[in-house]
Design a protein that fits this description.
Length: about 750
């Protein structure tokens, strides 16, 4: 706004005092002679010269404005506004006088016309009737001219009023917007003050109110009004329990009172969850508590983690976002309408274009999301039931902990099924962090699934690694598969974090043989290409190109139909497809982020709803995870303690399973009555989950809703949904669910 133009902020350079220098053919420098310097690079020498010229012109204008401002000062500005207002009022006054004059003339001529008409009516066709009639016509003509003049004056007045009315309306709207922002800020400050005041009272009152000492001690915040006993409830003083959300009310949550207890100052997490469930099923939440500004020495934690796998490093929640990896996996369905449109396509090649756009869209949420999701606990689940709103429902389950593996299954009533098992490994390299899907390259899996030296169990790990995503369309039977690319987080130690995607994806239609090759171009400072660029080609089984895809993984994807002329081949026609703008089809465009997303972990509209409490979910659902809920509510210290408790509980459960598996192995070897029982595998090493051949009961942990099968299409061992979850939810029978929280 104009009011803010007089202020400066860190990172800005005032053009009036800036130095613009040319470095070489494409580079130039803008500096204020002090701490701020910009090194800018144009795509060409012509483009660099255009920028330098434009900046020099803007600098000259800024210098001129600065001189005028120095000469006249604030008084001249206010005097100019006052003069403009006086001129406007003078013009409006003159227009009002014109209207008044026209009104008098109309009244005068109207009276004369009426008199002439009366005289005409009194005549009974005398000889001079012709002159009278002519006089009436003249007066009528004069009346018409005067009326037209008044109409024109009214029109001028209205145009002038409308012109200035728009300006005044704009100024009024700016004042209203500023008032609304001030009111919102004041409301947030008031709620934060209220929360801090209650927290202070709870910290000072509750320790003194132990049973048997109610009347003997006085509180700093409130004097004792009697014994804190059940016999004198009327005299007891009650305080509101700490609100679940210290920031503005985001989920229709209602505050609840809590009796002062000598054992606990907070209501339990289960009670909090029950309170938050209210009204969330009817209306999806659009806000979450803002991210607190907690400082943390990153290097002190990360310096001992170089070369280690990220899933094995104990991380505080300061690096996390309040979502689990299962919920991040479900975010792949944010643009589910692309699969809905693909299901309606009659051509398999056009359908493949939409599937490719859906593949790219799953990365759009990562462009600003530099925080790490919570590692799911073994057996943790997450459901997303959008059958009524969007026609699909989804289920994820953590089926392995080392390496981390999550199975995902989604069904849509619009005619498609999506399933995937994602296994990733992540390495911290000092400057950047690489997150790689296992099985991305045929030769890269050996280091993870290969035989451990000296273990003698190489036969357990000879099966291809999973990580394939499957999409099946019911009406056509088209079955598509693809895998994810590598994600890299840069500037881990110093600088602003930023994320890049790189690699290639091959999407295959196993029914028709059609393919789509997508290339995610890695960012390069020396490249002139658009950042985050994605290119692709859709080919038939013979290798002929039918569509060319072009776009970015964070904004949009376009499709160009390749027109092959006589004597042309596919390679010659591809550039022509880019030039033919009339053949361009927008496949996908990223939805804008919600308002104030920068304060809410850059969550999308879907991500904001994923952790909202819901009734009827399984006890293992990520929404019920206590450390994640505490972090979302801004209670990070408690979340860190709860996170350590959950991880320790998971380690104890794993040791118990391994001990049981070891005992079962000994019984199978020594007991003669168990001769028909197939041999079991020894306990798995800490870093590996055994990939045993089908039929050998060697895995000490079995997922609840997914089972491991050999995929007939890819020949991979993958966890496939075996059913039963939604039936259990309908009956509310969760007796098989483990106690993981």
């Amino acid at each position: 706004s104009k009011a803010e133009m007089g202020h400066t902020c860190r990172g800005t350079i005032n053009l009036a005092t800036a130095n613009i220098t040319v470095e070489d053919s494409c580079n130039f420098i803008i500096s204020n002679g002090g701490a701020q310097t910009y090194h800018l690079k144009a795509s060409s020498e012509v483009e660099r010269q255009r920028w330098v010229t434009a900046l020099e012109l803007a600098k000259a204008k800024a210098v001129k404005m600065l001189e005028e401002s120095d000469d006249s000062g604030d008084e001249s500005v206010s005097q100019t506004d006052k003069t403009e207002l006086q001129n406007t009022l003078r013009i409006l006054s003159s227009k009002v006088e014109d209207l008044s004059t026209c009104n008098d003339l109309i009244a005068k001529h109207g009276t004369a016309l009426q008199r002439s008409l009366s005289e005409l009516e009194a005549l009974r066709l005398p000889p001079d009737s012709t002159d009278k009639i002519k006089q009436v016509n003249e007066r009528a003509t004069l009346f018409r001219i005067t009326s037209n003049a008044m109409i024109n004056a009214c029109r001028d007045f209205m145009l002038l009023a409308q012109t200035h009315g728009k300006k005044w309306q704009k100024s009024l709207q700016q004042e209203r917007d500023q008032r609304i922002r001030l009111e919102e800020t004041l409301e947030q400050l008031a709620k934060q003050h209220n929360h801090l005041e209650r927290a202070f009272r709870g910290a000072t009152v509750l320790p003194a109110s132990t049973p048997g000492t109610g009347g003997s001690s006085k509180d700093l915040c409130c004097p004792a009004k009697g014994d804190l006993s059940d016999e004198d409830d009327d005299n007891n003083e009650f305080f509101d329990a700490p609100e679940i959300f210290p920031m503005p009310d985001v989920m229709g949550h209602k505050r609840t009172g809590s009796n002062i207890s000598g054992t606990s100052s907070d209501i339990s997490l289960d009670e909090q969850y029950k309170h938050q469930v209210e009204d969330t099923k009817k209306e999806k939440r659009t806000r979450i508590p803002y991210k607190p500004n907690y400082s943390l020495n990153l290097w002190s934690i990360m310096k001992n983690c170089i070369g280690k796998e990220l899933s094995k490093i104990p991380m505080p929640v300061n690096f996390n976002e309040p979502l689990s990896m299962l919920q991040r996996l479900t975010e792949d369905l944010e643009y589910h309408e692309l699969l809905d449109r693909a299901a309606r396509c009659e051509s398999s090649l056009e359908q493949l274009c939409y599937v490719a756009a859906f593949t790219v869209s799953s990365y759009s949420t990562t462009v600003f999301r530099t925080s790490k999701p919570f590692n799911p606990l073994l057996g943790e689940t997450f459901e997303l039931d959008r059958l009524e709103e969007n026609g699909y429902r989804s289920l994820c389950e953590q089926v392995s902990h080392h390496p981390p593996a999550a199975a995902h299954h989604a069904d849509s009533k619009h005619g498609w099924t999506l399933r995937q098992e994602i296994k990733i490994t992540s390495k911290f390299r000092g400057k950047y962090l690489s997150i790689m899907p296992l099985g991305e390259h045929p030769g890269s899996a050996g280091g993870i699934f290969g035989t451990a030296r000296g273990s003698g169990r190489g036969s357990q790990h000879r099966f291809p690694p999973s990580g394939t995503i499957h999409c099946v369309f019911h009406s056509s039977g088209n079955h598509y598969t693809w895998k994810k690319v590598t994600t890299t987080v840069h500037n881990i130690i110093v600088g602003k974090l930023w994320i890049d995607q790189s690699g290639e994806i091959e999407i295959v239609n196993h029914k028709t043989g059609d393919k789509c090759n997508l290339k995610f171009v890695p960012y390069s400072y020396f490249s002139r290409d658009v950042a985050r660029k994605v290119t692709g080609e859709v080919t038939d089984p013979s290798g002929k190109v039918h569509f060319v895809l072009l776009g970015t993984w964070d904004e949009k994807m376009d499709c160009y139909k390749v027109q092959v002329g006589t004597g042309d081949n596919g390679a010659e026609a591809r550039p022509r497809a880019h030039e033919a703008e009339d053949s361009r089809v927008l496949l996908w465009k990223r939805n804008p982020l919600p308002k104030y997303a920068e304060n809410m972990y850059y969550f999308s509209e879907l991500a904001l709803t994923l952790n909202a409490p819901e009734n009827g979910t399984a006890p293992t659902d990520s929404r019920r995870r206590p450390d994640q809920r505490l972090m979302e509510n801004g209670r990070w210290d408690e979340a860190n303690a709860e996170k350590q408790r959950l991880e320790e509980k998971q380690r104890l459960s794993r040791k118990r399973r391994e001990a049981e598996a070891a005992r079962a192995t000994e019984d199978g070897e020594e007991g003669p009555s168990h001769g028909d029982v197939p041999p079991r595998c020894p306990p798995p090493p800490p870093a590996l989950t055994p990939l045993c051949p089908p039929g050998t009961p060697c895995d000490p942990y079995k997922p609840l809703w997914f089972e491991r099968k050999k995929d007939p299409v890819t020949q991979e061992l993958a966890h496939v949904y075996k059913g039963g979850y939604w039936e259990s939810k309908e009956k509310q029978d969760w007796s098989l669910c483990p106690d993981i929280f």
